[in-house]
């Protein structure tokens, strides 16, 4: 979505389940508005947070005018057969984007395109490379051609549906995904307790929630070094994102088993109120 919109809206890392929410990236031109909607990857839920993530993915099936199903040259094509079955029953146009074609060769790609075409006969299969910007313009062209006429959904100046605090939390989560291993990033949620914009500076207080006491120690690290690194990197990105100096305070707290608590998931914005 970032490459299509031309803005860094969704965080992206090499780890699975980076995206947890449904995030809109709005493209405005003089005569058109395209609302892209990035969703979590499709998975079989093991705990309540993952159920909420799958609900976000499923919701795109009910309201999108065009469905862009993004796979890549590494993912096996029948990984999400239940979801693909639902995609095949869509009445809206479906584009299957096979991403990361920079990592394969022509023969393998041709075979993969055929496999996808068999699975989704009415879909248009488009090989792309998001990082290599290959075929991205073609995807945009097809989206423009396929979009139905409609009044704009959002104000012309709006570029996302999410508030500033959301991006603070996501930028933090990106750094946590990058710097901690195993279960740690998946056990973390970041809450922005204060976001106070002054003329020259934004004052932010962020709370990193973990599920257990032992994870708190790992997040903080020896002599606080791990947390310091993450906070420094996050602050640098936040300054770039908001174009202002950032004063950042970070705390780590335990919220036992928050990923499995309906109440906590609601307070973190994963479920409707
Ligand atoms: N080689 C290569 N890597 C890519 C390309 N596009 C994206 N990536 C990398 O793939 C990784 C995953 O990117 P994400 O945007 O987080 O992927 P996602 O599908 O949104 O994943 P989740 O949010 O975790 O479901 C990142 O490390 C990207 O840099 C590409 O065209 N070629
Ligand atoms: Mg993502």
Structural overview:
This protein has 273 residues and is an alpha/beta fold. 37% of the residues lie in helices and 22% in strands. The protein has nine helices and eight strands. The protein has a three-stranded parallel β-sheet with strand order 3-4-5, covered by helices on one side. The protein has a three-stranded mixed β-sheet with strand order 6-7-8. Strands 1-2 form a two-stranded antiparallel sheet. α6 (164-179) packs across α8. It is globular. It starts with a helix and ends in a 6-residue tail after the last helix. Bound molecules: guanosine-5'-triphosphate (GTP) and magnesium ion. Magnesium ion is lined by residues 10, 12, 18-19.
Defining key terms:
alpha/beta, three-stranded mixed beta sheet, 9 helices, 8 strands, globular, binds guanosine-5'-triphosphate, binds magnesium ion
Give the topology.
Elements (H helix, E strand, L loop, with lengths): L1 H4 L17 E7 L2 E7 L9 H16 L3 E6 L8 H8 L5 E6 L6 H14 L4 E4 L8 H11 L17 H16 L9 E9 L3 E10 L2 H8 L4 H18 L2 E10 L7 H6 L6
Parallel strand pairs: 3-4, 4-5, 7-8
Antiparallel strand pairs: 1-2, 6-7
Helix pairs in contact: 6-8
Bound molecules: guanosine-5'-triphosphate and magnesium ion (MG).
């Amino acid at each position: 979505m970032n490459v299509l919109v031309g803005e860094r809206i969704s965080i992206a890392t090499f780890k699975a389940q980076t995206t947890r929410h449904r995030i809109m990236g709005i493209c405005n031109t003089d005569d058109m508005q395209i609302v892209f909607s990035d969703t979590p990857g499709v998975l079989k839920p093991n705990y309540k947070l993952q159920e909420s993530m799958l609900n976000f993915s499923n919701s795109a099936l009910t309201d999108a005018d065009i469905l862009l199903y993004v796979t890549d040259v590494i993912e096996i094509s029948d990984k999400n057969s239940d979801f693909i079955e639902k995609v095949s029953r869509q009445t809206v146009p479906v584009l299957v984007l096979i991403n990361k074609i920079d990592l394969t060769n022509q023969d393998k790609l041709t075979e993969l395109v055929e496999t996808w075409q068999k699975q989704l006969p009415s879909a248009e299969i488009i090989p792309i490379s998001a990082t290599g910007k290959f075929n991205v313009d073609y995807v945009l062209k097809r989206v423009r051609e396929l979009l139905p006429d409609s009044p704009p959904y959002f104000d012309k100046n709006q570029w996302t549906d999410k508030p500033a605090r959301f991006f603070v939390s996501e930028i933090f989560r990106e750094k946590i995904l990058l710097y901690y291993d195993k279960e740690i990033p998946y056990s973390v949620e970041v809450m922005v307790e204060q976001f106070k914009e002054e003329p020259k500076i934004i004052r932010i207080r962020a709370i990193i929630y973990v599920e257990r006491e032992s994870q708190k120690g790992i997040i903080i690290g020896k002599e606080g070094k791990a947390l310091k690194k993450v906070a420094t990197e996050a602050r640098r990105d936040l300054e770039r994102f908001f174009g202002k100096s950032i004063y950042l305070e970070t705390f780590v707290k335990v919220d036992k088993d928050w990923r499995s608590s309906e109440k906590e998931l609601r307070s973190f914005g994963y479920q409707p109120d």
